[in-house]
């Protein structure tokens, strides 16, 4: 259950925080829109690489390493201040997650709860005052999405290190 939550939350958390990433790296909506396909590209490459792991090889060290590295890159994502750095981090996160998922296939509730974890830290898009809608002008210092990313990454690292092979 713990792995399922981390896995799906780690995949779903960038979606609701995309606009905050846009502010954080000072990019346009079109530019930040490359983040999710870039992560998927890394995931695809990781899935192909994971298929080359020999069947008789002990997969536990690879699973633990990939899950831990995926969690570390997830934790680094909100700390990037450049679009290229953010996209590179997302590609690497996707790569290790792709390898991991090929070796340990499952689905969970993490995709459902990721928006719930992220929502309290997202910046409001606009505020209503009377009959007027005010658009807020935020700076990168206003962005607080590093907190939910840290929660999910720390959770994943802890359970990744505690992962034990059942006999």
CATH topology: Growth Hormone, Chain: A
Distinct helical segment count: 8
According to DSSP, the number of beta strands is 2
Structural class: mainly alpha
Number of domains: 1
Organism: Dinothrombium tinctorium
Protein name: Sodium-dependent glucose transporter 1A-like protein
Transmembrane segments: 61-77, 83-100, 105-125, 145-163
InterPro entries: MFS_trans_sf (IPR036259)
Which keywords apply here?
167 residues, Growth Hormone, Chain: A, elongated
Please give a structural write-up.
This is Sodium-dependent glucose transporter 1A-like protein. Keywords: Membrane, Sugar transport, Transmembrane, Transmembrane helix, Transport. Helices cover 61% and strands 5% of the residues. The radius of gyration is 17 Å and the shape is elongated. By secondary structure, the chain is mainly alpha-helical. Helix 1 packs antiparallel against helix 8. The chain has a two-stranded antiparallel ribbon. The protein starts with a helix and ends in a 5-residue tail after the last helix.
């Amino acid at each position: 259950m713990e792995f399922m939550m981390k896995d799906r939350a780690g995949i779903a958390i960038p979606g609701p925080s995309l606009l905050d990433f846009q502010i954080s790296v000072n990019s346009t909506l079109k530019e930040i829109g490359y983040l999710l396909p870039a992560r998927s590209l890394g995931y695809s490459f990781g899935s192909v690489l994971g298929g080359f792991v020999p069947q008789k090889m002990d997969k536990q060290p690879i699973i633990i390493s990939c899950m831990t590295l995926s969690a570390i890159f997830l934790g680094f994502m909100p700390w990037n201040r450049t679009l290229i750095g953010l996209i590179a981090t997302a590609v690497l996160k996707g790569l290790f997650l792709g390898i991991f998922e090929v070796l340990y296939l499952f689905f969970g509730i993490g995709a459902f709860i990721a928006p719930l974890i992220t929502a309290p830290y997202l910046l409001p898009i606009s505020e209503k005052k009377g009959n007027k809608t005010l658009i807020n002008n935020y700076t990168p210092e206003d962005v607080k999405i590093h907190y939910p990313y840290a929660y999910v990454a720390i959770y994943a690292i802890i359970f990744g290190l505690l992962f034990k092979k059942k006999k």
